[in-house]
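Field log, afternoon session.

UNIT: design team B
ACTIVITY: writing a sequence onto a fixed backbone
BACKBONE:
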């Protein structure tokens, strides 16, 4: 049985899973994450709901929207940045803000997932994300699945990493320390700054 929910949207961000295998990485573009303050199954609190790209394209959810619907708890919390997903009966029932915020953190309507894929991301310090970027359309907290050994794919680890898809000129941005990825036989890959630079070098400072 699905959980009923309603509340006010605090943030809309891309819902993306990152798969790492030593120095290689790939992304699964799952949809969008709605972070909501409201009521879910009769309990008032903050919670998060994953929706698909078609639902976001239809409703154009953004910060301040009043939303309602039904959802299910995620099957594996290691693989999702949200608590609930498989949302249905989605409705936008109102809006509490008159203007979009068009300076950092950006709180306008999120672009399509192809735009995120095209833009590429830079690592974002977890503390900066939590304090300044968790309402921004360019922020993203990704569940990360790490394949330790390709010869033994059952050996995996899980964690979360934060990233920024926003303008390179953003004054709030802080990279944080390089990320480390465990490999076979105790080997360790350090993802240096050039990886981020390569991912976004096709963009100008204000893009």
């Amino acid at each position: 049985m699905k959980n009923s929910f309603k509340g006010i949207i605090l943030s809309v961000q891309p819902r993306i899973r990152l798969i790492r295998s030593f120095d290689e990485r790939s992304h699964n573009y799952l949809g969008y994450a709605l972070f909501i303050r409201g009521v879910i199954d009769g309990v008032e609190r903050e919670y998060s709901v994953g929706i698909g790209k078609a639902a976001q394209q239809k409703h154009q959810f953004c910060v301040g929207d009043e939303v309602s619907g039904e959802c299910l708890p995620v099957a594996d919390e290691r693989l999702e940045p949200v608590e609930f997903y498989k949302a249905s009966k989605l409705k936008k029932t109102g809006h509490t803000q008159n203007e979009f915020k068009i300076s950092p953190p950006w709180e306008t309507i999120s672009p399509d997932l192809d735009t995120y894929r095209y833009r590429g991301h830079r690592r974002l310090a977890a503390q900066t994300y939590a304090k300044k970027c968790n309402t921004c359309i360019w922020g993203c907290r990704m569940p990360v699945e790490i394949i330790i050994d390709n010869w033994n794919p059952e050996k995996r680890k899980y964690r979360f990493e934060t990233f920024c898809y926003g303008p390179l000129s953003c004054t709030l941005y802080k990279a944080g320390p390089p990320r480390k990825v465990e490999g076979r036989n105790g080997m360790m890959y350090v993802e240096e700054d050039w990886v981020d630079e390569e991912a976004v070098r096709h963009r100008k400072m204000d893009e």
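LOG NOTE: The beta strands are 3-21, 24-40, 43-51, 65-73, 84-95, 122-123, 139-147, 156-164, 179-182, 188-191.
NEXT ACTIVITY: expression trials, pending approval
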